[in-house]
Design brief:
The protein is mainly alpha-helical and about 100 residues long. The chain has one domain. The protein is built from 3 helices and no strands. The longest helix is centred in the C-terminal third of the chain and has 26 residues. It is elongated and about 65 Å long. This is Transposase DDE domain-containing protein.
């Protein structure tokens, strides 16, 4: 078993076992961890992070930017096809002459 030392100025812990946290803080940390796990689940299963070709902090940043670009492009095409983008905006983008 690995002995983990928690810095004294750490106010909350969201990883590890509930028994690693003082009893008075356990409920708060469980709620925070629950919210975090839900966010990670959505990111992996609905936003494509489970298929990421890049790893680590830099890789996650690259993948999140690619996902955002893909989402924005999809939304733009939907709005363009539904003619919900003003002519002024299309001219600024160089899509109308």
């Amino acid at each position: 078993m690995v002995n983990q030392t928690i810095p004294k100025d750490t106010s909350h812990i969201f990883l590890g076992k509930s028994s690693d946290v003082d009893e008075k803080e356990q409920d708060y940390c469980r709620k925070g961890r629950s919210a975090t796990e839900g966010f990670i689940s959505v990111a992996k299963n609905l936003r494509g992070f489970g298929l990421s070709l890049y790893r680590g902090i830099d890789g996650d940043r690259i993948w999140s930017l690619l996902c955002q670009i893909g989402y924005n492009l999809k939304k733009f095409i939907q709005l363009y096809n539904d003619e919900e983008i003003s002519e002024e905006s299309l001219m600024k983008l160089g899509l109308l002459g």
